[in-house]
Structures are given as C-alpha cells and as structure tokens.
Amino acid sequence: MPRLTRLLSYAAVASAVLVGPAFAHAHLTSSVPADNASVAAPSEIDLIFTEGLNLKFSGIKVTGPDKQDVELGDSKLMDGDKTLMVPISDPLKPGAYTVDWHVLSTDGHKTSGSYSFTVKP
Length: 121
Ligand SMILES: [Cu+2]
Description:
Blueprint lengths: L1 H18 L8 E5 L5 E2 L4 E6 L9 E5 L12 E3 L4 E5 L7 E10 L5 E10 L2
Parallel strand pairs: 2-8
Antiparallel strand pairs: 1-3, 3-6, 4-7, 5-6, 7-8
The structure holds copper (II) ion.
C-alpha cells in the first residue's frame, strides 16, 4: 500500500519536526547576583541554566565600572552541571558590573548573553 506508506512517512517527519531536537539549548534561568540587582559585593557569580554544560567551553567575563576585567577564579559546575559557579578573586568595589557569558551545553549547542548588576556602596 504505497499511499499509506507515504502518509506514514509524512506523519513521522511531521512529528519529528513538532517534537524538535531531543535536547534544548542551555538558556540562562537565573543568576546570583540577579539581573539588574543591587547587592553587597558578591564573592562568586552563579549562573543557573536549563541544561547541563560543558565546563571546558563555558565561561564568563565580568567588566567593572572602570571598564576593567574583574579577576576571576577557576569556574566549576554544580547542580547536575547546570550551574556555573565562578569565584571572584578580589572584593568588588561599588559600581555597575556587566557579566558576559558563553556556554556550551551537553547537546553541543552554544549560547551566550550578558546581564548587569550593581554593587552597593
Ligand atoms: Cu541545543
């Protein structure tokens, strides 16, 4: 029954398209400090993603109020590899900070973004 076979294969293709890739990209769910938050100087930055990450190809850059890069320690993964934790080496002085992040999720997709927070005087 070639017509039925053809219909079935169309249906298979359609459902594959609807379901989409088995894994989603890693999207930033939340962070500490949070986006636009005004906080006391943090000792680390935590980025919580929707998917597990590959540490080797994931990282952040933090830029301070003087446009200088903030010195960071070695990042590590926590919480089922979904949280990227990055220690801050020196205490942050008051001002506006920007976090630029880039990650590779375990499904092999890269995502990136940025957000800002403020350290209170
Ligand atoms: Cu993906």
